[in-house]
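Here's my example:
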Amino acid sequence: MPDLYGFTPTNAGRGLIASLLAGQTLTITRAMVGSGKPDSLEAMAALTDLVAPVARATSTAPVRTGDAVSLTVEYRSDMNGGLQEGFSINEYGLFAKTADSAETLIFYGCLGDHPQWVYPYTPGVAPDVRDFPVKIQISSEVEVQINYHADAFITAEEAQALLESMVQQTAGGSRLVEITIPAESWAQDTGGAYPWYADVTVPEAQASYFPAAALHTESLEAAAAAGMAPVLQALEGKVRFRAKEPPGSALAASLALLSGGKDSAGQGFGVVNVGTALQINVPGGVAGVGEDGKISVSVLPVNTPEGVAGLGADGKVPASLLPEMGGGFVQMTENIPVAQRKPNTMYSLIEVDFG
């Protein structure tokens, strides 16, 4: 069997087109794809239907260039309710009619020994798409129309939006925006640990999102001084920050809005990288470094619990600050197992002479 790779108007199609009179309309009624192929070129031209039709396809709107009409037949696995079982496209055809004629297969294409496999449709996954060109010579006085909606073709922008929507529904998505919290936007409500709040308009925000805000470096000090809360809340069209006091300046931040899948929506609460002001040389803070690059002894707690032992006038730690030794140093031998060692007693690996 020859490799019948190509396309042609059918004999019936040629006859229908040749019979058209000036001012008549050729209406394309449907496009089809199938899995068969004819035995010869003669058989291909004589076809009145596909050899093994499988599914309806769609097309672009016809475009006339002189006496030629061009369009593209397209099949998508999400058409007709979604393809349930995969198949190999090996043929495609275009059917048309006039006001006075029956529907006729006017154009047939065959992929010969090079069929194209189409996978079953999976919701949430981009559909399998196959395109096939069609070009028909026709009188410039004859109008060509289609009587189905050419809805399989979308713009690049529409495709991007569709893909984002599918990802959003199945796996969740994210938005990243730069925001500013104006100093004058803070207001006080009923109280609590963080009685001041500020709402920032973010059109993309939804109450089901998980928000995460990263304050810019230059805003950390003001946020820490104001006691900004380490959490924020996403609401419809805005996000809400809280603080113990209103910051003295505007705060800049990068805001990420994270959404879960359709079965794992968030609750609207998220996190803020709050700047923490360090307390130096005060209880609960950290010890400061002196001009000599060392921690000043004056800031260390001396002779107090959790502190350090001070030296006496003789330059030694007073015995009153040392725990009772319980017998002094003892030579560690196998005769003193761990379970029998005395509390508050230091053991040595060498023998110590107290004499």
